[in-house]
Amino acid sequence: MCTAVDNREIIILSDDDDEDDEGCEQDVSCSEPSVVIVEVEDVKKSDCVLPPSALDEDLVVTFSRPAEVLPHARYDCPIHLFTATDCEIRAPLAGNQLICDQCFCYICDKLASSCVMWCHSGVCHCNSHKRSDFWKDIRNSTLLGGLKTFNLTLSEIDAHLRQAEMMLQCFRRELTVQFSSYLEGKRLEEYGLSILNHQGLIHDYTPVYESVSSFLNKADKQDGRAAAIMRLGAAEDFIQHFQIPGTFILQSSKANVAEAKALLLQRIVASLQRQMVMADFTAEFTHKLQDFYKRLNFPAPLKRMRNSLCVRPWDDILLVSVLKGQNLLGFRKDKGKRDILTEQISVVLLRTELLQHQHRYRELCRYLQVVQTDKPSRFQEVQDLIPFFTCMEGNFTSALHSLPSSISGTASRFTPNLFLTYLRIFETATAPKLIVSQPTQLCYSDAEWKPIKDAVPLKRAELVKFALRVQRCCSAVYQDSLCWTHLLKIVNTPCGSLSGIPAPSPEFLNNAKDVVYSILLDQSAYIHIPRAFQLEYPDQALLLLITGALGLRILTAALSPALPVLNTLKVNVTFEV
Question: Among 285, 293, 357, 518, which residue carries the largest CB count within 10 Å?
Answer without folding.
Answer: 293
